[in-house]
Amino acid sequence: MLALITGGTSGIGLDIAKILDSKGYELIIVGSRSEFDTSSFLKAKYIQCDLTDEDEFNSFLMQLKDFDLDVFIDNAGFGDIGTFDKTSDEKESLMIDLNIKAMHFLLKEVLKKMKEKNRGYVLVTSSLAAYATSGYMATYYATKAYSYSLALGYRRELKDLKSKVKLSVLCPGPTKTEFEKTANVKFLIKPAKSFKVAKVAVKKMFKGKGIIIPSVRFKVYAFLGKISPTLFANRVISKSARKR
């Protein structure tokens, strides 16, 4: 059994890798770090790849054709905070390339092969941010709305084909990872533990759950985001983001 995990060197991705390792999966962990120690895993290979670099990404897509995957964890991504006119164009461009472009085409390539085999599990890491909009993190929220919408659209296609390929979307809220450091934010509410989120995610993925929200607290936030008038929710969330 073979599992591929992008963004697997830290946070939720790393914890999912540990869980799959304990279940006997051979792992391919993808990250941008120059080195990553896989000695703690039973059988793991690390592939260094900057998924925002077009040449490296295309090279990795070619490698992907040779992998007979049973599980794909599409987890790589990051955020940023700041007013839209002052945030770094370079950082936002990289965010769009990673959170949207790389996610889109990796997912598409993997699903092509899984559909042919008529088996496999896919988990796309989106966010509770997909349930609302926000100032001060506008680009990040928009990228997560994209991944959420795309993944559920693909899931519907698989359902209509009566495919045995299972596609799930993970929507965590604030979680203790490197996200705060990378996005230059500080969570105003207590973040969830990464391993707990990963444990729920893996369990629900293997059950074929469509949308995975890993705690009751996060489910409440998602519900409120859906039922609240759009502009009212935007004002409340933006006020919170501005305080960060």
What is shown here, in short?
Helix content is 49%, strand content 13%. With 244 residues, it is an alpha/beta fold.
Task: Jot down its keywords.
alpha/beta; 8 helices; seven-stranded parallel beta sheet; single chain; 244 residues
What would you call the structural class? alpha/beta
Q: Give the averaged pLDDT, no decimals.
A: 86
* Low-confidence region ranges: 238-244
What is the chain-wise order of helices and strands?
Answer: EHEEHEHEHEHHEHH
Outline the biggest β-sheet: 7 strands, parallel
Note the overall shape: globular
Helical content band: 40-55%
| Rg over C-alpha atoms, rounded to the nearest angstrom | 17 Å
Strand order of the largest sheet: 3-2-1-4-5-6-7
The N- to C-terminal Cα distance equals 42 Å
Total helical elements: 8
**Strand percentage:** 5-15%
Total strands: the figure is: 7
